[in-house]
Amino acid sequence: MCKKEAETPRHLLLHCEVASELWSMFFCLSGINWTTPLTVKDAYESWSLWKVDKAIKKIWIMIPACIFWCIWLERNKRCFDGESTALGILKTRCTENLFSWTNLYPAVNAEQLQDFTNSLALA
């Protein structure tokens, strides 16, 4: 996607400039320092180890899948349509997708979503 390295799952989903920016966005918003793992599996495993408030845990665990989904959609858009999305717009879409997903997840209620949003704003 960035055309700086071979497109491996590891590079595309974790280490590519676009991927790094999306990961960094969520970590900066939450105030957590994170070193990008070497593998996608390690990313999932380390993500689940973060201690986050129980009220937002169900939302927190959706973030990696949401990032991967947004990267995959952008990758396909670049490969098949020859178009790319500005990074700021991609970040906005990623957060919008996350909030859309949480609305579809019956175990997440409006109060949990508000707590999650507040925790990002306060970090």
Return the domain count: 1
Distance between the termini: 31 Å
What characteristic shape results from the CA principal axes?
Answer: globular
Number of helices: 7
| Helicity level | 55-70%
Instruction: Name the average pLDDT.
Output: 81
Structural class: mainly alpha
Report the radius of gyration as a whole number of Å.
15 Å
Q: Give helix and strand order, one letter per element, not per position.
A: HHHHHHH
Number of strands: 0
Tell me about the largest β-sheet: none
- What share of the residues does DSSP label as strand, in percent? under 5%
Low-confidence stretches: none
Write the layout of secondary structure elements.
Elements: H1 9-15, H2 17-30, H3 40-49, H4 57-60, H5 63-81, H6 87-104, H7 110-122
Helix pairs in contact: 1-2, 2-5, 2-6, 5-6
Q: What does this 3D model show about the protein?
A:
- With 123 residues, the chain is mostly helical.
- The protein has one domain (9-122).
- Helix content is 69%, strand content 0%.
- It has seven helices and no strands.
- It has helices at 9-15, 17-30, 40-49, 57-60, 63-81, 87-104, 110-122.
- Helix 1 (9-15) crosses helix 2, helix 2 (17-30) packs antiparallel against helix 5 and helix 2 packs across helix 6 (87-104).
- The termini are far apart.
- The mean pLDDT is 81.
